[in-house]
């Protein structure tokens, strides 16, 4: 117990928890209606080849514009959606909408869509992907599905059949947030990933003297190269981080150093201007949402 006013502190703490639980429940209720009320939207963040600043693809990131609270971070509402079964509807909407929007863009950029372990474990998931591709006309090789290590913990999630069915459609698979979950290198033996995404928690701090993150990133790159997978560094914000990622031979970079995620119309406008490369412009470019 805390010294002195321990009791007061306890009550304070407990009231806080109650409030958090109530907030969460209210948010969940609102999330139920978010799709029908057209409150969701997708922002796209460019994925850039570090060597020549060429934009090779985008990551689709869902946004929720809450009518009263304004933008709610997916880091907050995706876990709520996952626990309340809303993720299937939301995930399906994101997948279909991302395929539709990107198939209408000039050029052949790839789009990466985040897939929750709950969605991935659904037996109907490969059929949903096939349907999203067929309806949008997006070429399968332009769709990349991002999954995290937690699919290997989800019951019925990471079966060989599931991977085979998806690869059979011709889509690409990326392992997101690599090294932050319940990592086991065993799954890299058999799971057919095309790309490893190095989590921003490794990128952050990698430039500090004596950082262990640097050795970890170098090891991830070596592993990916040996297994013929691409690597993307996530959350690159500063020139120091950018230079380090290049020197460690990370091939693709995603982060505020190039661009924040931006709305569809804004992205299309840039593509129509012929902006297929972006100059890294450092943290000054940061815009907080
Ligand atoms: P993620 O898939 O690892 O996505 C990368 C996150 O890093 C995004 O946050 C992106 O906006 C942010 N980011 C990119 N560059 C930088 C940078 O330079 N600095 C910093 N500090 N952050 C950067 P966001 O959009 O808030 O999404 C958070 C997480 O929510 C995602 O992490 C993903 O796990 C989840 N998420 C987002 N959209 C979806 C979706 O449609 N479906 C599912 N299942 N999950 C999603
Ligand atoms: Mg992702
Ligand atoms: Mg990630
Ligand atoms: Mg992440």
UniProtKB/TrEMBL annotation:
<protein>
    <recommendedName>
        <fullName>GGDEF domain-containing protein</fullName>
    </recommendedName>
</protein>
<feature type="domain" description="EAL">
    <location>
        <begin position="24"/>
        <end position="275"/>
    </location>
</feature>
């Amino acid at each position: 117990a805390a010294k002195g006013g321990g009791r007061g502190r306890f009550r304070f703490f407990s009231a806080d928890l109650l409030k958090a639980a109530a907030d969460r429940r209210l948010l969940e209720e609102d999330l139920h209606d978010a799709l029908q009320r057209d409150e969701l939207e997708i922002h796209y963040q460019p994925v850039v080849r570090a060597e020549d600043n060429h934009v090779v693809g985008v990551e689709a990131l869902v946004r929720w514009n809450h009518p009263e609270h304004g933008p709610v971070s997916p880091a907050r509402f995706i876990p709520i959606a996952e626990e309340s079964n809303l993720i299937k509807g939301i995930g399906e909407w994101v997948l279909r909408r991302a395929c539709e929007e990107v198939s209408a863009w000039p050029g052949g950029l790839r789009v990466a869509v985040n897939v929750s372990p709950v969605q991935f474990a659904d037996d109907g998931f490969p059929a949903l992907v096939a349907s999203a591709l067929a309806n949008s006309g997006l070429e399968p090789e332009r769709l990349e599905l991002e999954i995290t290590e937690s699919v290997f913990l989800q019951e019925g999630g990471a079966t060989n059949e599931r991977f085979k069915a998806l690869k059979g459609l011709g889509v690409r698979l990326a392992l997101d947030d690599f090294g932050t979950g319940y990592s086991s290198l065993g799954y890299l033996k058999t799971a057919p990933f095309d790309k490893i995404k190095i989590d921003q928690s490794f990128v952050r701090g990698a430039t500090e003297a004596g950082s262990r993150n640097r050795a970890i990133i170098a090891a991830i790159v070596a592993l990916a190269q040996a297994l013929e997978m691409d690597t993307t560094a996530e959350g690159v914000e500063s020139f120091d981080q950018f230079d380090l990622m290049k020197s460690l031979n990370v091939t693709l970079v995603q982060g505020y150093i190039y661009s924040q995620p931006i709305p569809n119309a804004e992205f299309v406008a840039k593509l129509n201007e012929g902006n297929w490369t972006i100059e890294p412009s450092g943290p000054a470019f940061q815009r907080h949402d």
